[in-house]
Amino acid sequence: MGITERKERERQEVRSLILEAAQQAFIEDGYEKASIRAIADRVEYSPATIYLYFKDKSEIFFAVHELGFEKLINQLLDAVEGIENPIEKLRQQGYAYMNFALENPEMYDLMFIQNAPMEAIFENEEWVCGHRCFEHLCDTVQQCIDNKLIKISVLGVATMSIWSFMHGLVSLKIRNRFKTFPQEHIQNLMSASVEQMIALLQND
Amino acid sequence: MGITERKERERQEVRSLILEAAQQAFIEDGYEKASIRAIADRVEYSPATIYLYFKDKSEIFFAVHELGFEKLINQLLDAVEGIENPIEKLRQQGYAYMNFALENPEMYDLMFIQNAPMEAIFENEEWVCGHRCFEHLCDTVQQCIDNKLIKISVLGVATMSIWSFMHGLVSLKIRNRFKTFPQEHIQNLMSASVEQMIALLQND
DNA sequence: TTTTTTTAATGAACAGTGTTCATTACTTTT
DNA sequence: AAAAGTAATGAACACTGTTCATTAAAAAAA
Asked: What Gene3D superfamilies has UniProt attached to this entry (chains A, B) (predicted)?
């Protein structure tokens, strides 16, 4: 009776084909232009077929944003590989986060700016991939605290401050609000800000 | 020949009626639901009429976001009235910024998160209201630097860092990404983060 | 093998969006 | 009173997300 299993396997295969197409449509054309019809065209299915595999657009975007988190988490892990000093870990994770955002602006948009993927999470449900990613920041910051390397001693305050700073930095850039700074200095200012923030955090 | 003047006056009146309606539609229903037809309904005009007064939706939203900046600038000014200490000014402006964002999330969204209003600015044009608002932060930070009250000495780095931190804080909150923190502690953590950041900035 | 049942995919439609344009209604000028 | 100019609109176009009755294909039962 392997027939139902094969059917299920085929179903999952089509599902991930759609997901792949959605991700690509999204990365290439951004949130606004990645319509159901555009995704359907890529997989050569009818738009209605999409709804046999996903409840609605939010659910598709939620699934895509999970793929984004997988990638980000990997890059965060790669960034600290072989590094012992917790402060240096923090710095490298900061740059990894920034690079991810600037190299994948549409994906970052989906993960941290757009409302859509969050609407797919029910009231009392957990934002699993978000938590998983956040854990890596917590780990590093906790190490900094344990070794008395930073001036903040409350984990929650430290992680919220650091994350907010990094998110503000990249999202203002992505959303074109840094017009208040000279165009040609923005990149340098952003790096300098990261360094400055670490310097401020660090214990003497 | 006051007839053309009267015509012009009437034109401007209708224009600001539409603008008022757009602002309200926006504040009440948010970016997504504030459609041209919804705005037209509020002023009891045909949707096509809107286009006699605004080039497109971006231009409407740009005009609305300017109204938001007027309000924010006023609140920033009110917040520092009578305060001499630059650090205290910075703190109060920080809280004023945060309160504005949390009390007017849809407007803040438009001003600092949405792409639409920025698309109405031509390539080599200036983001006047943005610059005007940013000036107030520059002034305060420059005073802190002049009086050697903060650890950062480069104006650009300081303003970018502080603004990024504040924007990250309120935008992650607005866009529901602080699910990684216990719901009931978020508000307190946000205030604590602002205090912590000022403490880090301050010279001993 | 033929018939019935189950499953998968779709075309067409609905209600909504921003935007355009020929046509109508109204004002001002001649 | 007729002509010219301006303001407002209804209807349409090309999109959007989503639904549903109908069709095509595969599996199960006869």
From this structure: Tetracycline Repressor, domain 2
**Is A183 touching B (CB cutoff 8 A)?**
no
**Whole-number Å distance between alpha carbons of B112 and B101:** 10
Domains along the sequence of chain B with CATH = 1-54 (1.10.10.60), 57-201 (1.10.357.10)
Alpha carbon B103 to its chain centroid, in Å, reads: 12
CA distance, residue B6 to nearest chain A CA (Å) = 38
- What pLDDT tens digit does each residue of chain A (204 aa) get? 576 788 889 999 999 999 999 999 999 998 889 999 999 999 999 999 999 999 999 999 999 999 999 999 999 999 999 999 999 999 999 999 999 999 999 999 999 999 999 988 876 789 999 999 999 999 999 999 999 999 999 999 999 999 999 999 999 999 999 999 999 999 999 999 999 999 999 998
SS3 assignment, position A56: coil
Q: What backbone torsions phi and psi does residue B62 show, to the nearest 5 degrees?
A: -65, -45
Q: Cβ contact (<8 Å) for A193 and B157?
A: yes
C-beta atoms of A167 and B163 within 8 A: no
CB neighbours of B81 closer than 8 A, spacing ≥ 6? none
Closest Cα in chain B, distance from residue A157 (Å): 5
